[in-house]
Amino acid sequence: MKRFLLLSLLIITSGVLSAQKSVSQKLKKAPVYAGIEVGSKGVKMTILQSSGAENEYNTLKDTSVNTDFISFTDDTYKNTLSALTQLYKVAIDSYEVSPSSVFTAISSGVSTMAEKENKKDWMKNLSDDFKKAINEPGRNVKVIDVTEEARLSHIGIIPDSRRYNTFLIDIGSGNTKGGFFPYNNTHDLRLFELTWGTKSVTNETNKRLDENNINSIKAYSKELYRVLAGSADKEITYAVNVSGAYNMSDNIAFSGGIAWSVATLLFPELIENAVVPVTYDEVAKFMERIENNYASLAPEAVVNTVTDNSVDKLLVEKQVKTVNKVFDQKALLAGTGLLLKIMRQFEGVYDKKQFFLVKNGQTGWISAFVNENKGTQ
Fold first, then answer.
1. Domain assignment present for 121
2. Domain total in the chain
3. pLDDT tens digit string along 124-161?
4. What is the pTM of this model?
5. In the listed set 92, 118, 144, which residue is the last one of a domain according to the structure?
6. Domain with 121 in it: what CATH number?
């Protein structure tokens, strides 16, 4: 009962397209936009339709192609260019989105890793090759800096009623970013930034394994602990202290792929909720489950834990399969470990914060990006 009461504290409206209405029927009623983002793990596309209310959208399609761009190899470059081009064509041909209503961007996570690896020219080359592929030399492929991405995420994800007492933290693949608005406006964001994300933590942990234990989860977990207890821990502690968020925010909301994954696997009975409340202890126990009982996170096993007959078990199975496809055991451990490290900084003895996992974070920042850039393409 407590969990359902907590849900009322933070509500995010998630639009659902009726299965009985064709895409073409929906397109006739309101403007449709597409946001395509090159992220650290791959290329994501969200098709949005104006809901009729000002600055609000329904999601028609939300999809991604994993290409691992930040590995910076010839193959991952080619795969990323292909995915970017194909998703653009899907938006134009299948959803009849006009080119001026398709917004293309490169995430701050890619930019952060490109700078680390001295590969910033890869972003320009990708942009140039994409423009040639779609024959739009004047197209704007915007590289979103970390502050702007965090600001847009907050605007797109957090409802106005919780705007100024919620600290949003988006755990991405290549970095983590977020913040809050300390001055009661949506322009001055107090930034929270880490150079660590799910993929970068996974990569750093894998580097520490030798050929004899590369496939050992026990060895991986041991090295993961060292990565998170080392420079990552110092960076997290410093970033939280500098942000000043502890005293200013009552609610700590996490978005990004790992937030969606943990919420989906840990609370399958809340599969249709866009926001799920969670405690530090629940996530800590889930971390142990990933390492010691990974089989319990298989689709059939998760579905079998659902006892409420009103829950759509087919939807649960579908979502869990997607999680398993996007995050393997190592990535799930890395992302959850990073999530725990950040949560620990807010787990005060007396001043308890409310933690939330946001499932539709990607749609949130893209909707804000589309809204602020309409008419500029």
1. yes
2. 2
3. 999 999 999 999 999 999 998 888 888 988 988 888 88
4. 0.78
5. 144
6. 3.30.420.40
Q: Report d(CA 316, CA 322) in Å as an integer.
A: 10
- Predicted local distance difference test score (pLDDT) of residue 21: 38
Does 150 reside within a domain?
no
Paired tokens of 34: 């597409």
Three-state secondary structure call for residue 358? strand
Report helix, strand or coil for 32: strand
CA angle 192, 196, 198 (to 5 degrees): 115
Residues 265 and 315 placed together within one structural domain of the fold? yes
Domain residues for the domain of 176 are 159-362
Q: Which residues pair with 180 in a beta bridge?
A: 190
For residue 97, report the phi and psi dihedrals to the nearest 5 degrees.
Answer: -80, 130
**How far, in whole angstroms, is CA 99 from its chain's centroid?**
25
Contacting residues for 164 by C-beta, under 8 A, at least 6 apart: 180, 181, 184
Classified as helix, coil or strand, 105 is strand
Give the total residue count for the chain: 377
In a domain, 376, yes or no: no
What pLDDT was estimated at residue 306? 97
Residue keyed to tokens 């978005």: 255
